[in-house]
# Entry
Amino acid sequence: MNAVTAPALESLTVGDVVAGASFTLTRDSLVRYAGASGDFNPIHYRDDVAQSVGLSGVLAHGMLTMGLAIQPVVDWAGDPARVVDYQVRFTRPVPVDGTDGAVVTVVAKVGAIDADAAIARIDLTVTFNEQTVLGKAQARVSLA
# Structure
């Protein structure tokens, strides 16, 4: 098995975009995630239940959105173990239309560099319909 080389810390500059992706969610995605996670809250797959609690319709699981958002960083880093910390604030739900689904977009930029610790803080901008859905989304990535 070949080890993937980490990006070179010295090649990074604060503000560099290091990764990005768009993810299309469908109702099928939500059902599969519910099965994998064990989170069968019906607001994630039944419009009638979501509307009965004041929502416009079915919402993506917050943890699904959080998991999708870190994937471009993991791909860039080359090894999920290099992500030593990851935190977000859930700021807006992601409604998933029964016909059109939802597209979540992620842009990952270098927010800070700790050369002594060989850690890059990667700031994530995670949006749906041009609105931020995860606030203060940051990962600390070890590039030692």
In short: Strands lie at 17-25, 83-90, 102-114, 119-128, 131-142. The chain has one domain: 9-142. Residues 9-142 form a domain with the Thiol Ester Dehydrase; Chain A fold (CATH 3.10.129.10).
